[in-house]
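Quick one:
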Amino acid sequence: MTASVKILTTSTIDSSPAILLISPNGHKTLINCGEGCQRSFLESNADRVRSVNQVCLTHIGYSATGGLPGMILTSADAAQASVEERNGIVGGLNIIGPAGLKDYVHSLRHFMRRDRFVLTLREGEYESTAKAGDGTNSRHGKGKKRKKAGTTSGDSEDMGLFGITSLPMKREIKTFYGKEDIHISSYIFTTSPIAGKFQIQKARNLKIPPGPMYSKLKAGEAVTYVHLDSGEEVTVTADQVLEGGSEGVAIALVYCPDEYVFDQLCGSDNKPNSWIEKLNRYKSSDPSKAALELIIHYTSKKLFNSEGYKSWMREFGKEVEHMTIHPLVENTYCGGNEELDGSPFRSGVMDAMQRSLLEADIYPNPILSVDSTKFEEKSECDLCIHQARPQLEYIIMPLAKKGIDKNTLPSEENTIHGFSTIDHDTIVKETKASGALEAATKVVESLQDGGKGSIQHSQLEGQLSDPNGCLIFTGTGSAIPCKHRNVTGIYVGMEDQSGIILDAGEGTLGQLIRSWKSTYKGTNDSAGDFIKSRIKNTKAAWISHPHADHHLGIIRFLTERNSILLHSDNHRISDDDRIALIASPSLLRFLDEYSKVDPTIYYGYIPVDCRDTISDRENPVASFLNRELGITRCVSVPVSHCYHSYAVVLDGTSFGRLVYSGDCRPSDRLTEEGHGADILIHEATFENGMEEEAVLKMHSTVGEALSVAK
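Output:
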C-alpha cells in the first residue's frame, strides 16, 4: 500500500495551505482547513472530504480553521445520510490543535449543532504512536480489518493512522490592545515500523514450519516451534528472517511564521521546551526511531531564505528532503504561490474566463498577464528543496518509490497564473461552439442600439469600474460545496469607493480581492495600496442569518482589515475606523467568543443586533451608515427561513433602493418594505415545479422570486 503527502492548496489570494497525509490503509489526516478547503477536495477527483479521519491545526485563525465548520457540517450530514445509526452516533472526527481549540469548537454551537457526529478534541501537548493497519506489513502487529467510514471510533478505527507528536509553541502578534501571545503548533507524523522483506530460505534453514508461522514472522511477531531435527523447542524472532526493515518513516510539519517562533525552534529564546527536543532528536541518526524523510516548512519566504534558517535545516542532515509553503506577503496580496499558480479553484476560474469572453466589462477576466514560470523557486543550496504546488504528491511508502510523484508535477509549459495557452484556447473554442458568445454579442448590441431597456456601453462599464458604484457577486452557491461557484457573498460599492458587504460566506474577501486586482487600471506596484483602501473603506457588513455558508468569510475580512489599520501611519483608531457589523444575536455571540481565542479580530467591528434595525425601532447605527456610506435607510425585515433570518432594504446606495432577500420564502412584509426598489436581489434556490421542496427547505423558486419582483 502507498502512503503519501499531498498538497491540496497553497497560499494565494483565495486559498490557504492545506495538506493531506494518506496512510497505507487509506486513512487521511488533513493539516489545516482554511476557507474553500472543501472546494479543493472537489477539484481533486481522488479525494473526498468525508474520507478525512482527523484534522491537525497549526493555529486558530481563518487560514487554518476558516473552512472547518463547513467541513464538519458536510461530513456529519454525509455520515447521517449513508451510515446506519449506532447507539445514537453517526460517525465522528478527531481534531488536534493548539491550546484554545476546545474554546473555538465550543463557540461554534451558536450556529452549528451536529450532536450525533462526535468530535474528539485534543489540544496543546499531544502524542500518539502509530498503529499498524492493513497493508502496512508492520513488525509490531498484524493489521485489523478496516471498518466502514463513519462508524463509531475505537481502537480499530485508529489502525493505520500516523503517530502524531505536537510541538506547541507561541507566536507574538499585534492587536489593538498591544502585543499578545497566541498558541500555535507544529507536528511530527510517523508511520508504524516497516517490516523487512521475508527471506524464505532463511526460514527453511531454521526448519520453521511453513504456513501461519510465516505470516506471524512477516508481521513482526516471534514464533515458537519444535525443531524437526533436534526435537527441542525453538523461538525465532522476526529479525532473523527479515531484511531491510526500519522503525518507520517520519514527516515534520514546521509552522514558523516569524523569527519569534524560530527562536523557540532553535532554543535561542533560552526557554526549555521538551516538545521541541522531540524534533531535535532527528538531527542525529538513530536506528531505534523512525527515519526523518521530509520537513514541510510553512514559513515566510524571507525567513526561509535566511542563512540562519538554512543552517538550522542542515542540522537534520543532507538525506532529509524539504518542501516549502510560503504565505502571502502581509498586506500586499502577492507572494506565496499567487503569481505562480493563481487560484486553485480551476473550475470556477475557467467559468469566469468564459463569462469574460461574453462581456468583459461586466465579467472581468480573473487571470492577469503574468508569466507564472518566472516565480518558480530554484534551489541553489546543498539541500534538496521542493516548492509545494497544488495537487503535488510526495510518496512516503513504499520506500522504493519515495520522493515526488512525477505524475503530479505541473506542466513545464509557460503558464499565466497556472493556466497554459492550451487551456485558454480550449475555453475560447468551447465558448464559441456553444453559441453563447454570439448570443451575448447580440444582446449587448440591442441594448446599445435602442429599444426598451436601452443603455449605453459606458453604463455597462460603470457597473464595475471606478469611480462609479459597483455590485459584485462573490458567490451564488448553496451550503452544499460546489467547485464551480463560491458560497453567498455580495459587495455593494458606492461612488466614493466605500462599500457594504451583504453576507460573507467562505472566500468572500478572496473573490473581492481577485476582482479588484483584475480590474485595477494602475500599476502592479500600486495595486496593493488600492486593494487596502477598498478593504479599509468597506464600512459595514450585514449578515442575513446564522447559517455557516453566509457568514464564515467575515472572520478573514475582519482579520485583514484590522491588520491594515494596525500597520497604518495613524495608530489612533476611532469608532469611525471600525465597521458596523449587523447580524443575528447568535452570530454576534459567536464572534465575541471567537475573538478570545483569535484576537486578530479584536475591536474591528461595532456589533449591531439585526432586531435593532427593524423598521419600527430606532437604528443604532443609522447616523454612522449615512455618514460613512451615504445610506439614508437600513431596515432589516424578518423572513421565514431559520431562526433569526432577515432580509434588508437599503436606501441611498449608488443604485437607489436596493433590496436583498437573504434565504427565505416569499415575504409580503418584504414586498411592502421594499416597494419601489431599483434593484431586487432575491434568492431562487429551486427551479419552477419544485415548490414542495422549496416549502420544505424554506427557500424560493425562480417563479416565486419573479412574483416578488412584480
